[in-house]
Structures are given as C-alpha cells and as structure tokens.
Design goal:
Layout: H1 22-47, H2 55-81
Helix pairs in contact: 1-2
Length: 87
C-alpha cells in the first residue's frame, strides 16, 4: 500500500493583502459598541421566537432596541466629529 503525502507545505502563509490594515482594525474597534448592541438585540429576538413574550421579555426587547439606537447615535456623532470620518 502506498502512503499518500501532501506535495505542498502543511501551512500556507497568508498573503499580506488578506490581513486587515490598522485603519480597518481601528474602524472595527470604533464600531464595536454598535456591533455588541446589535448582537444583544439578536439574542433577544432569538429567545422570543419560541415563546409568548411576557412583560419582562417586552422590557428586555425595548431595552435592547434602545441600546442599539443609542450606540448608533453615539457612533454617528463620533464619526461626524472625527476629521475625515472614521467609517
């Protein structure tokens, strides 16, 4: 029986163009509060898919929506004030 071996290196190095630049990482970091708030809202929506919402669920949903709106407003204000816009 013949042994099968890879003809190429096991780990292929990433080309330099595939790594995010420092500017892209800074933009992601600046937008992280919005991303986190949207993830929380998604978690609430998923939790409410399989049950009838009670009063606490409705509060949690409203709070999550409010957090998303607040995070977006803060991010928009910060990018408006930043020279050249961060996004």
């Amino acid at each position: 029986m013949k042994s099968i071996a890879a003809l190429q290196e096991r780990v292929t190095p990433w080309p330099a163009g595939l790594q995010p630049s420092d500017e892209e990482l800074d933009a992601i970091e600046a937008e992280m509060p919005v991303i986190s708030a949207e993830v929380e809202l998604l978690d609430v929506r998923i939790a409410l898919m399989d049950r009838v919402p009670n009063e606490l669920d409705e509060r949690r949903f409203r709070r999550a929506v409010h957090q998303v709106l607040e995070a977006r407003r803060t991010f928009a204000a910060a990018t408006k004030q930043a020279p050249g816009g961060a996004a």
